[in-house]
C-alpha cells in the first residue's frame, strides 16, 4: 500500500519533470530556427534531463516503489514529457507570435 508521503513525493516528481519538459521544449522552440529541430531536441534530449531529475529526486527518498524500470520510465519520464510538450505546443503562443520590446541602448 502506498502511503500519503509516497503519493505526494510522486506528485512532486511528476510536477518537477513536467515543468522541466515544458521549459526545455520552449527553449528549443525559441532557440532553434527549424520546426523539426525543436521537436527532435525535445524528444531526444529532454528525457535525459528528466532521467537525471528522477535519479536525484528518487535518491532523495521521494516517491513510492513503482515495481520496475518500465513503470518508472512510463510514469516519471514519458508522462511528464508528453504533458510538458503538450503544454508548450497547445497552450502557449508560438515563439514567432510573441512581440518583444525593442532593445534600446545596445
From TrEMBL:
Residue span(s) of domain DUF7991: 1-103
Keywords: Membrane, Transmembrane, Transmembrane helix
Record-annotated membrane-spanning stretches: 6-27, 39-62, 68-91
Protein name: DUF7991 domain-containing protein
Organism encoding this protein: Halosegnis marinus
